[in-house]
Amino acid sequence: MTRRVRRNPDGERRLRRLAWQFTRFLIVGLASFAFDYGLFFVLYTYVGVQYILASTISFSLSLVLNYVLSLKFVFVAKPGRNIAREFAMFIGLSVIALGLNQLILFISVDGLGASPLVGKLIATAVVLVYNFISRKLLIERMGGARAVVPPLDESGPSETGGIRT
């Protein structure tokens, strides 16, 4: 006797939305990473800034780019939101991410003997997962923003590239 598996169209839609949102998050993250790693590379390699300080500078500046791009392409700001509170939450999450980034970078370089350029790649990969989960749970769920997703009727993106405000 075989059991029939029931399909859950709403669950499948939610999963597709989450996958599409994560894809956009990765694209925004890639742009932010290119800025972060490029600046880190220049500061460390050509300017001679110590690797932890170079990482702190590049990571911090890339946060602003990531915040703007995230609101434009990944999360939609709700009307009437408290921008100061929203940005403070974003900065709070990012400070934790910076600490995690720096710890992994330090362990990679000073503990495992990796090049700072390789250590930065390792740290970035770990922090990527933390960033998506933390922002999804805290920013969306606390009302600061909501995911940029198509409505339930599965219509395509709006003329503004999918951004719904």
Structure, described:
The chain has 165 residues and is mainly alpha-helical. Helix content is 70%, strand content 4%. It contains 4 helices and 2 strands, in the order H-H-E-H-H-E. The chain has helices spanning 9-47, 51-73, 83-111, 116-140; strands spanning 75-77, 145-147. It has a two-stranded antiparallel ribbon. Helix 2 packs antiparallel against helix 3 (83-111). The longest helix has 39 residues, at 9-47. The model is unreliable at 144-165 (pLDDT under 50).
Total strands: the figure is: 2
- Helix-and-strand structural type: mainly alpha
Strand residue percentage: under 5%
* Order of SSEs: HHEHHE
> Uncertain segments of ≥5 residues (pLDDT<50)?
144-165
**Number of alpha- plus pi-helical segments:** 4
Q: How would you characterize the largest beta sheet?
A: 2 strands, antiparallel
Shape: globular
In the sheet with the most strands, the strands line up as 1-2
What is Rg? 19 Å
Fill in the keyword field for this structure.
165 residues; mainly alpha; 2 strands; 70% helix; disordered C terminus
Topology (elements, then pairings):
Blueprint: H1 9-47, H2 51-73, E1 75-77, H3 83-111, H4 116-140, E2 145-147
Antiparallel strand pairs: 1-2
What's the quick description here?
By secondary structure, this protein is mostly helical. Helix content is 70%, strand content 4%. It starts with 8 loop residues before the first helix and ends in an 18-residue tail after the last strand.
